[in-house]
Amino acid sequence: MKKIYLLFILLSFYGALAQNAKPLNSGSMTKEVIIGKLKYIKENTSLNPKQEEAVLLQLKFESEKIKFEEGVLLSSDYLMATYSEQDKNKEIVALGNELKKIIKDRKDDPTGVISSIYRKNALALMYLGLDSDSKRDVETAIEFAKTIKNPDRKYLRQTQCYMDLHSYYASMNHQFEKKIYKDSTLYYLNKSLDAGQKIKDNNGEISNKIKYNEVIFIYIRLGIFYLEYSDEKGNLGLAEKNLLKAEKLQEETNGLPIRSQTTLFNQLSWLYMEKKEYQKSIDYANRSLQLEKQQSRPSSRVESFEFLATCYMEIGEKEKSKYYMRQYTNLKDSITITGRTNANTTIKKMVAEVDNGHKENSKKQLMIIGILILMATVVTIILWRRKKGSFIRNMRN
Questions:
Q1: What does the longest C-alpha to C-alpha distance in the chain come to?
Q2: Which one, of 161, 162, 81, lies nearest residue 124 by Cα?
Q3: 3-state DSSP: the chain helix, strand, coil percent, rounded to 5?
Q4: Residue 154 to residue 18: CA distance in whole angstroms
Q5: φ and ψ at 318, to 5 degrees?
């Protein structure tokens, strides 16, 4: 009897907790309603990330409640994107690990949601410094992407994933400078370009802007790759060929956002500085600076200042060179200080999170101890009363 009473009390307690864990106003939703709400979120950007996060958590909960797997996966995929906007990489990985249990036996990905989940998880792992785990998830995303039904959506996912692998090998190459990493960097750039070029124009699924944003950026990355090895025969020519293709496509499609356009112009400035065509280099650096005024980007501006300082020195305009060198030095120092401040802030935030975690754990432990004491007291009182009643009945008999 003791065990039965204790079990009853424990079940009542955990039942109350489960009720409190449910989101407020979580009226039952049908599959159609969930899909409709997810479609609205995808097509509208009026919600800020915090609001979007709350709505998506609600939709994920409702999908789980009615065992609607498509709703769980889609809401989770969108939730990962929202977490990414807020730099919540640990939350992305935690959600990714949860989702992997659901999709572990899946063999295909007709809509592309599974490859998207693996890719987002891979990027979060990369930002957390877990490169090997990141690479594994990107490779899984690529395998699932092969099974996407719509060919244009499939090619878009492939070009994105191959670019992610390019980033992995580029990082490894910068750290260890091994030929295998250098070759892999170029290999995946070309794989990414090949997939991106297969996306049809005006296909009704992937917009031309999205397609050309990917393709133009790949040409820029190819240009940067060859510029980094400009001392090797023929590489300056290959850098120019790819960067001019990027520029031509940008003029034809306006596929790049402003920030990426500043990158393109700076790489062209770098190219012509290496080719000793200094006036061309100056022109492109100035074009980058003009664009940068529309959307501040210090890292781009400091690059432009460096090229201008070097080129003006080479053509003998020392005063202009000194001016841009001062601009470069001041901004570089400012970026360095800001980087250190941000790093310190991040570290403090991490320490605070750990401290808060310990405090929360302590509160939970105290709560559990209190509940156990309360339960033990209740059980003791119940048993004592029963024993007392039994004793009185025996006395009467």
A1: 120
A2: 81
A3: 80, 0, 20
A4: 41
A5: -70, -35
CA 30 to CA 67: how far, in whole Å?
11
What's 233's DSSP letter?
T
Q: Whole-model pTM?
A: 0.77
Ranges of H-type helices in 105-234? 113-127, 131-145, 151-176, 179-197, 208-228
Cβ–Cβ < 8 Å for 291, 261: yes
Query: Which position has the token pair 């105290």?
Result: 366
Residues 324, 309: contact at Cβ < 8 Å?
yes
Tokens, residue 302: 């400091």
Q: Is 335 exposed, middle or buried (0-12, 13-18, 19+ CB in 10 A)?
A: middle
| C-alpha to C-alpha distance for 59 and 71, rounded to whole angstroms | 8
In single-letter form, the type of residue at position 137 comes to: D
pLDDT tens digit sequence for 216-250: 999 999 999 999 999 999 999 999 999 999 999 99
CB 128 within 8 A of CB 110: no
Classify burial at 206, counting beta carbons within 10 Å of its beta carbon; exposed 0-12, middle 13-18, buried 19 or more.
Answer: buried
Answer left, alpha or beta for residue 188, where phi above 0 means left and psi between -120 and 50 means alpha: alpha
Tokens of 372: 């156990």
Using the structure block, give the residue that is written with the tokens 């909960």.
Answer: 61
Q: Where are the beta strands (DSSP E) in 214-291?
A: none
Residues 47 and 32: their CA atoms lie apart, in Å, by 21
19-33 residue pLDDT tens = 333 443 445 789 999
Tokens for 106, please give them: 């899946």
- Residue 104 near residue 140, CB atoms below 8 Å: no
What would the two tokens of residue 375 be?
């339960």
- 300 near 335, Cβ under 8 Å? no
- In this structure, what token pair is assigned to residue 149? 């039904």
Position 397: which residue type?
N
Question: How far is Cα 247 from Cα 226, in angstroms, rounded to an integer?
Answer: 16
pLDDT above 70: residue 313? yes
- The vertex-300 CA angle with 231 and 266, nearest 5°, equals 45
